[in-house]
Amino acid sequence: MVPFAGYELPVLYKGENGGVMKEHLWCRAEGKASVFDVSHMGQIRWHGKDRVKFLEKIVVGDIAGLAPNHGLLSLVTNSNGGIIDDTVITNAGDYIYMVVNGATKFGDMEHFKANMADFDGDVTMEYLEDDMQLLAIQGSGAANAVSKILPAGFDLTNMAFMTGVDTTLDGVEGCRITRCGYTGEDGFEIAMPFDSAVSIASKLLEDPTVLPTGLGARDSLRLEAGLCLYGNDLDETINPIAGALGWTLGGKDSRRRTEQGFNGAKHFLTPDGKLRKQVKKRVGIMGMKAPARAHAEVFDETGETKIGEITSGTFSPCLKKPIAMGYVETAHAKVGTKLNVSIRGKMQAAEVTKMPFVPSNYYRVPE
């Protein structure tokens, strides 16, 4: 257990299948699923007739375009265009459901309140505190496992990725399920009242295909999937374009890029919606013989000029080789560009590579 954002969280579990490597590979294995306790994350409901208008001021995504029960990944930006947090937002019909990171949730909410004070409209923020707990279940076996606690007749086959609904879980009212995740696999985040969290988690873990999994494997899984960790790969000095997250704004003629209106838009978009040139970009990096950790320096092919820094790095359990992501000067950001990474005082040859490092297996509704 380790302290994190005011909570005690498990890095790994003991037992026959415990440990970061085994837990990681279990989640990737066919027919298996991993359960993560992510109750430290912040769950918020937005109410009021102007909730969409307000949210489109504080995040970059197309909230107005979300069909009922559909969601998206978006970014909360500051007045300079820097990323305050990344968030999953779902149109829950009568309200908007938002999940933010645990380490940033209180700062996020102060930022939201400051923006609400300047907003002339009807919007209220309901922070669910620890009254609602959150579990993530990930892996190709997640749907089969979670089906055992869903109401009879619940149609998981036609539940698309990035959709969510209010439901009962194991007979408990007031729960919610969203098909999403942080591993590159199929999976769900399920929210339930505090008093029912242990019983619902225990019910899931009765299934022999389901394994409790800690933060260590969660981190290596998300890195293989090319997904960012806020505070490492994203922060308030990084804008969506430098962070290789321009897709969260939509395509070149999308409403959000052309209309803008969200905090800091002018710093990374031109008035007609084009992406402004960046001095650095987030890239994937491979080829090192040893894992490169956060803050390791990145140099050009000659090894003489520093061009960037690693933000996340690990040994990939699936690929059995080191992987990393970081920021390099834009001139060196093209896939295939040769680099050097300084690891424990020694230069190691590497190159820019595509992400995700491991192919994603997000669910697609059968045609």
Walk me through what this model shows.
The protein is of the alpha+beta class and about 375 residues long. The chain has seven helices and 19 strands. The protein has helices spanning about 20-30, 50-60, 105-115, 140-145, 195-205, 215-225, 255-260, and strands at about 1-5, 5-10, 35, 40-45, 70-75, 85-90, 95-100, 125, 130-140, 165-170, 170-180, 185-195, 210, 280-285, 295-300, 305-315, 320-330, 340-345, 345-355. Strands 10-11-12-9-3-13 form a six-stranded mixed beta sheet. Strands 14-17-16-15-18-19 form a six-stranded antiparallel beta barrel. Strands 5-6-7-4-8 form a five-stranded antiparallel beta sheet, covered by helices on one side. The longest helix is centred in the first third of the chain and has 13 residues, at about 105-115.
Task: Describe the SSE topology.
Blueprint: E1 2-4, E2 7-9, H1 20-28, E3 33-37, E4 42-47, H2 51-58, E5 71-77, E6 83-91, E7 96-100, H3 105-117, E8 124-127, E9 132-138, H4 142-147, E10 164-169, E11 172-178, E12 187-193, H5 197-205, E13 210-212, H6 215-224, H7 255-259, E14 280-286, E15 297-299, E16 306-316, E17 321-329, E18 338-343, E19 346-353
Helix pairs in contact: 1-6
In short:
This protein has 367 residues and is of the alpha+beta class. It contains 7 helices and 19 strands.
Portion in beta strands = 25-35%
Radius of gyration: 21 Å
Sequence of strands across the biggest β-sheet: 10-11-12-9-3-13
Number of strands: 19
- Tally of alpha and pi helices: 7
Distance between the termini: 44 Å
Structural class given helices, strands, pairing?
alpha+beta
String of helices and strands? EEHEEHEEEHEEHEEEHEHHEEEEEE
Average pLDDT score: 98
Task: Give the helix level as a range of percent.
Answer: 10-25%
